[in-house]
Amino acid sequence: MSRHILPFKCAAILMCLVWCAAPAEAASLELRWSELAPIILEHRVKVVLPGGQEIQGQAVAVREDALVLDIEKTSDRKAYPKGQGSIPRTSLTTLQVETIRGSGGRTMGLIAGVLGGVVLGGDLIAHTAHSEAAAISSFLGISTGSAIAGYYAGRGHDRQVTIVKILHEQ
Fold first, then answer.
1. Domain coordinates of the chain in residue numbers?
2. pTM of the shown model
3. Residue 23 CB: number of other CB atoms within 10 A?
4. What is d(CA 99, CA 13) in angstroms, rounded to the nearest whole number?
5. Is the separation of the CB atoms in 166 and 32 below 8 Å?
6. Which terminus of the chain is less hemmed in, N or C, by CB atoms within 10 Å?
7. Which architecture, in CATH terms, is 27-100?
């Protein structure tokens, strides 16, 4: 194989990995407050409040007047510290709900990454390495890196994000 074709082969494989890692489009739902509990309870929820505060955590309960979260990340630690806290119903208009759908994507991504890395690493060192030390370290680096990239690409396919718009009760 020519030295001029190898960079194109690497670029093509890299583009495939980036394409696979791109997240799918988020689903969208419109629900009333009373319909919210079955959809979001025990799921990771992300909320952006009117003041610009961003809160992320596990949904614990949906009360008549507030959403109770086990807050894991917050942009305003004084108003919404980590731990269990409630967010007033009046300040919520949309939520992002993250659902994990098993581990199939991570498994397939890891397998594809390992196989791709072994093939790419073997091909690369067979045509470019001039010493054993450089060949071994290049092969290990490429195969490990592609395995990690495959895992994270698969992880993106295992997660589903749903945007929930909260409608006013009539």
1. 27-100, 102-157
2. 0.63
3. 10
4. 29
5. yes
6. C
7. Roll (2.30)
